[in-house]
Amino acid sequence: MISLGNYAFGQKDAPVLPIDKSTKKITYSEVVYVADSADKYELFTRAKEWFSRAYKPSTSIIQMEDKEGGAIVGKALMQVYHKALGTHESGYINYTISIYFKDGRYRFEITDFHHTGQYVQAGRIQDFGPCERMINSTEKIMGISAKKTFNYYLYQMDNEIKSRINDLKLSMKISSKKNKSSEW
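That's the DUF4468 domain-containing protein sequence above. Prediction below.
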């Protein structure tokens, strides 16, 4: 019953998402110049501190870090929900977040969004796969359109990622040296 109700509620239209022209994947990407012209090592340190605050535990998120080469790559996930007589867990959206550093600037790229289902009381919510498949989908599940539910997932994803990006940008402005006081 929950899975049937799942498809009756949600957003009518998909959010406008950034699609990379060459990969055709949903990709949030930007080059950000820092006002204090920090070198790539300082920016690397700021990003490491951000990962440790933004993702718990950050050690399970970070897949690769290269201070000399100027890169951190992580794999993260977020819980998504559906609406059916309330709000219920409906799986996870997994994604890759990469941050690259050069003196005075950094570039982030968040991509490879993929939905995986989960077990709930009523049974298993299936995996829906790459999130690009959800955009303007005409897919039906048990004869019922999944469009509104997919749009609801995509809105949750978009809001979460935009919030992470804003938090990253704010954190990257703050010198890690200023945060560490020798007197405590």
